[in-house]
């Protein structure tokens, strides 16, 4: 096999579709098809994001596309990081395809002045999968272990006792919900909270740092999401004095109707102990079900070390379906 790595131009719909198909074939064994749909991929890759530079890569053996990769470089913050993905269909594995893609990605990351490459590796629960073995062989130790969980909206526990529990513990806190666009009066406080989010969550050895969100950047990103057709369901918790105490959201990807993805859930340290994470999640899930009746599945990722959020998700009825390893190499 003679492998050549080339960038895929998002505007070349034929090659973009081959790139998408190659990635889907590589993940065919997953318990749920959670990779972006073709329509969502086409929409997001052809609409650049101001906070990231993205390069789509494909491995070719002659005319055959035998592997797909992506390199994402943050340009607004976390300038030492490079995020990457490498997928190779099973019929092409153990022939150097993944190695060639990763070599190309690392070279591009070095050229951009990045010192860390972070890759997400999926595997069945309790199994050391081929991705983990490949990562270890290429010098990518595990930086964090996460769980991939799903919630069946047609078959979940009765949430009435949970809502009662959250109301009893609220202690004067209140929940406010909105959709895709953050109200102007809340944007500054939300940005302040988002800017300390990374510092508050378990992140293992992942070299990610806090971001620097501003109301202008927040609005720009929200407008892009609106143009793409992504729907967001948001809840925030407020203390009795009106101070923002927590935030949670979930998203329905562009051109998708049957599943949603949890974004983030955070409760600022000084406001914990009032079941606010549970209350906000109940609110976003209720809004989702009311607005998106065709939605049947919600997915979330949580670090194994995040015991509190895992407990909340377990109460809601989320169940573990995969393990996700964040593997990281220092260049």
Q: What's the arrangement of secondary structure elements?
A:
Elements: E1 3-8, H1 13-26, H2 38-45, E2 52-61, E3 64-74, E4 81-87, H3 97-111, E5 116-123, H4 130-137, E6 142-152, H5 160-169, E7 174-178, H6 187-194, H7 197-200, H8 215-228, E8 231-238, E9 244-252, E10 259-267, H9 276-291, E11 297-303, H10 307-316, E12 319-330
Parallel strand pairs: 4-5, 10-11
Antiparallel strand pairs: 1-2, 2-3, 3-4, 5-12, 6-11, 6-12, 7-8, 8-9, 9-10
Polypeptide structure, described:
It is a single chain. The protein is α+β, with helices and mostly antiparallel strands and 331 residues long. The protein has two domains: 3-114, 3-Layer(aba) Sandwich (Aminopeptidase), CATH 3.40.630; 151-320, Gcn5-related N-acetyltransferase (GNAT) (Aminopeptidase), CATH 3.40.630.30. 32% of the residues lie in helices and 31% in strands. It has ten helices and twelve strands. It has helices spanning 13-26, 38-45, 97-111, 130-137, 160-169, 187-194, 197-200, 215-228, 276-291, 307-316; strands at 3-8, 52-61, 64-74, 81-87, 116-123, 142-152, 174-178, 231-238, 244-252, 259-267, 297-303, 319-330. Strands 1-2-3-4-5-12-6-11-10-9-8-7 form a twelve-stranded mixed sheet, sandwiched between helices. Strand 10 (259-267), helix 9 and strand 11 (297-303) form a beta-alpha-beta unit. Helix 5 crosses helix 9. The mean pLDDT is 96.
């Amino acid at each position: 096999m003679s492998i050549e790595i080339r960038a895929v131009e998002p505007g070349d719909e034929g090659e973009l579709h081959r790139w998408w198909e190659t990635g889907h074939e590589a993940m065919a064994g997953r318990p749920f098809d959670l990779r972006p749909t073709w329509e969502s991929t086409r929409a997001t890759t052809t609409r650049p994001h101001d906070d990231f530079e993205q390069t789509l890569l494909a491995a070719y053996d002659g005319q055959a596309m035998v592997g797909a990769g992506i390199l994402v470089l943050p340009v607004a913050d976390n300038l030492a990081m490079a995020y990457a993905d490498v997928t190779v269909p099973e019929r092409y594995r153990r022939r150097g395809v993944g190695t060639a893609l990763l070599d190309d990605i690392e070279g591009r990351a070095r050229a951009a002045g990045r010192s860390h490459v972070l890759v997400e590796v999926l595997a069945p629960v309790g199994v050391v999968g081929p991705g983990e073995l490949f990562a270890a062989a290429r010098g990518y130790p595990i930086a964090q272990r996460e769980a991939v969980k799903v919630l069946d909206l047609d078959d979940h526990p009765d949430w009435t006792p949970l809502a009662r529990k959250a109301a009893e513990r609220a202690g004067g806190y209140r929940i406010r919900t909105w959709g895709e666009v953050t109200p102007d009066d809340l944007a500054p406080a939300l940005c302040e909270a988002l800017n300390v989010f990374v510092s508050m969550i378990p992140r293992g050895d992942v070299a990610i740092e806090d971001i620097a969100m501003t109301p202008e950047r927040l609005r720009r990103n929200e407008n892009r999401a609106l143009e793409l057709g992504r729907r967001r369901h948001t809840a925030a918790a407020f203390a009795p004095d009106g101070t923002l105490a927590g935030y949670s959201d979930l998203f329905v990807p562009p051109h998708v109707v049957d599943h949603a993805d949890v974004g983030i859930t955070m409760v600022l340290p000084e406001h914990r102990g009032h079941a606010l994470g549970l209350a906000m999640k109940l609110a976003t899930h209720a809004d989702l079900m009311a607005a998106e009746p065709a939605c049947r599945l919600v997915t979330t990722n949580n670090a194994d070390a995040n015991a509190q959020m895992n407990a909340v998700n377990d109460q809601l009825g989320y169940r573990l379906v995969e393990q996700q390893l964040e593997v990281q190499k220092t260049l």
